[in-house]
């Protein structure tokens, strides 16, 4: 077990039982909070346990990467992945990252299998989830209970695992029913939230939804009251605010990690929308009179 000056505990806690319990729908297999700066950190989904388990891992700070069936995805703060073990994936600390802090929950059981299959088939393996969401707060709570030895037996631990699965379904319903968005808009929204750190164009966003750029612009205006590029800017600024509040990255690095080609343009956009520069926002973050900023 490791802890830092803020008394955050970093450890991995596994759960096994000596007795055959009444059959449960889902069990906690492991939970943990870790931070790594070593590129030796690597988990290959085909070289792990042969018995099925299901991993949910959420990035708190820094950056990780995951390869899934030939595609590589960055894992930045606010992003989670859901994978099954064994399966064709590998998650690791990339050489370009200075470190990666994350929290995870690994489950076993039919209820977990069904949940992972439904959510990944609809939204993919990578999800953008706010830190203050009920889903992430529940993961944090399960981990804290494990640290405090408050997951008193297999039955109580199973009830907490089942609560997590229900919260996953609840969150996925929110994604689907956000303004009752058409499936094509949902695909484009999810694409933007996954790849906002890349130099996306309107053509990229339209292609993700299999629509023309003119039609996707019209759909976004009708359903979200903004264009796809405005929505992209909203996501980038929300992520930039998170990094300004919760990291020591330079303004230039934050600009790069949130999809801006240079820090001068990032400063210009940030000042126009937020009203002050990124540097001033960081200096005044403790006196700014809000905890969460909604960009419309």
From TrEMBL:
Presence of keyword Transcription regulation: yes
Pfam families attached to this UniProt entry: AraC_binding, HTH_18
Database matches in SUPFAM superfamilies: Homeodomain-like (SSF46689), Regulatory protein AraC (SSF51215)
Gene3D superfamilies per record: Homeodomain-like, Regulatory protein AraC
Entries under InterPro entries matching the protein: AraC-bd (IPR003313), Homeodomain-like_sf (IPR009057), HTH-like (IPR037923), HTH_AraC (IPR018060), Tscrpt_reg_AraC-type_HTH (IPR020449)
Molecular function via GO: DNA-binding transcription factor activity; sequence-specific DNA binding
Keywords from the named record: DNA-binding, Transcription, Transcription regulation
Residue span(s) of domain HTH araC/xylS-type: 186-284
Origin superkingdom: Bacteria
PANTHER family reported for this sequence: ARAC-FAMILY TRANSCRIPTIONAL REGULATOR (PTHR43280), HTH-TYPE TRANSCRIPTIONAL REGULATOR EXSA (PTHR43280:SF2)
Full protein name: Helix-turn-helix
């Amino acid at each position: 077990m490791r802890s830092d000056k803020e008394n955050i505990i970093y450890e991995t806690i596994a759960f096994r039982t000596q007795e055959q319990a009444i059959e449960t729908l889902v069990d906690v297999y492991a939970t943990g909070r870790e931070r790594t700066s070593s590129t030796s950190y690597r988990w290959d989904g085909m070289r792990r346990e042969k018995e099925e388990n299901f991993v949910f891992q959420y990035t708190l700070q820094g950056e990780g990467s995951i390869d899934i069936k030939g595609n590589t995805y960055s894992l930045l703060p606010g992003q989670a992945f859901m994978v099954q073990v064994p399966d064709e994936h590998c998650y690791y600390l990339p050489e370009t990252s200075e470190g990666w802090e994350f929290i995870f929950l690994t489950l076993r059981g039919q209820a977990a299998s069904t949940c992972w299959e439904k959510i990944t088939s609809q939204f993919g393996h990578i999800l953008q989830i706010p830190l203050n969401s009920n889903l992430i707060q529940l993961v944090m709570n399960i981990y804290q209970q494990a640290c405090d030895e408050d997951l008193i037996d297999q039955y109580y631990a199973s009830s907490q695992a089942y609560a997590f699965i229900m919260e996953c379904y609840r969150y996925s319903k929110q994604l689907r029913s956000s303004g009752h968005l058409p499936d094509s808009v949902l695909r484009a929204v999810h694409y933007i939230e996954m790849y906002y750190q890349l130099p996306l164009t309107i053509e990229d966003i339209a292609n993700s939804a299999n629509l023309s750029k003119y039609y996707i612009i019209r759909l976004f205006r009708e359903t979200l009251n903004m264009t796809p590029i405005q929505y992209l800017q909203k996501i980038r600024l929300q992520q930039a605010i998170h990094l300004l509040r919760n990291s020591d990255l330079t303004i230039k690095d934050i600009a790069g990690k949130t999809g801006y080609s240079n820090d001068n343009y990032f400063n210009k956009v940030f000042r126009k929308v937020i009203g002050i520069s990124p540097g001033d926002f960081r200096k005044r973050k403790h006196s700014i009179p809000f905890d969460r900023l909604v960009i419309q």
